[in-house]
Amino acid sequence: MLSEILNGLMSRYQERVPDVAAVIRTMITEGIIHQASDIENDHIAFRTMGVPQLGVQSLEKIFLHYGYTKKDHYYFAGKKLDAWWYAPPAPQYPRIFISELRVKDLSARAQEIIYSYTDEVTVDPVTALNLDDSKAVDTFLHSGLWRTPTLEDFKVLAAESEYAAWVIYNRYYLNHFTVSVHNLPTGYNTIADFNQFLEKHGFVLNDAGGKIKASPDGNLLQSATVAQMLTATFSGGEAYKIAGSYVEFAERRVLPQYADLAAAAVKREHRRDGFEAGNADKIFESTYAAQTEKKS
Ligand code: OOG
Ligand code: NI
Question: How far, in Å, is the centroid of ligand 2 from the Cα of 226?
């Protein structure tokens, strides 16, 4: 079942990213919500390596099997990434955003390092999965795919692509979940107000391009925490702090053609859907050193 797979992802993510439980706890103590399940999860996101047997074409098969629909493509020239978003089979499920590194656009040295890991996966591992078996899917999403990297390889990759270094260590670990703020009580239901609440409680926000990332139509507003650092253990046994995952917040405004709907009648389909390349480009930087170094 889809909800089992999503719950498995969320529980591992929550164990790894203390900010997740801290945001939820603070929302409860502030009286914004009663319990964690009151939070609407706008979307979740994954990162992957764009090599033939892996990448989006592989990972997406899981979610297409569970009824997701592939939607728009986004291209990030500077970061050498492609991404797509997927609409859920029913509105109680989160959207999914999956990006992949355009490995062929990197230097020969970086490509060689990446292939030395990804070549361990000889065939698309998702084709071998029984996708109806949600336990098997859950196990797969939390398996290593390739050997633990060396610290040296991690550092060489990070110097050229922080995204590449993130994926070589973190693999398919959930990159973030996203709190929908627009259905929260007044005082918290805009990104501007919610950011203020977060900062008052000590959460550090990604300020690349400004703390509020806004789509040109003004209807999709996003913010994100700076990723928390975790102590990674590399193949030679070295402990080294690297960026883990972060938490995102999204405000989707009611589309102009539904502006006259009574607040109680507004549903997901009346709000701005999809993603925005300009916003996403800056949100990726939540795991980049320029942001994480502000925090540690
Ligand atoms: C994804 C960044 C983009 C969004 O909502 O536009 C994003 C990532 O950091 O992998 O999450
Ligand atoms: Ni996101």
Answer: 13
Give backbone dihedrals phi and psi of 284, rounded to 5 degrees, phi first: -50, -35
The total number of structural domains in the chain stands at 1
Range of the structural domain that residue 47 is part of = 2-295
> Does the interface predicted TM-score (ipTM) exceed 0.90?
yes
Ion ligand 2 neighbours (CB, 5 A) are 45, 248
Determine which residue's CA is closest to atom 1 belonging to ligand 1.
Answer: 284
Q: Does ligand 1 lie within 6 Å of residue 141's CB atom?
A: no
CATH number at residue 168: 3.10.180.50
Q: What is the pLDDT of residues 259-273, one digit of tens each?
A: 999 999 999 999 999
Which helix (H) or strand (E) segment holds residue 229: the answer is strand 229-233
pTM more than 0.95: yes
Q: Is 169 in the pocket of ligand 1 (CB under 6 A)?
A: no
Smallest CA-to-CA distance from 94 within 114, 70, 73, 68 is with 68
Give residue 45 CA to ligand 2 midpoint distance, Å.
Answer: 6
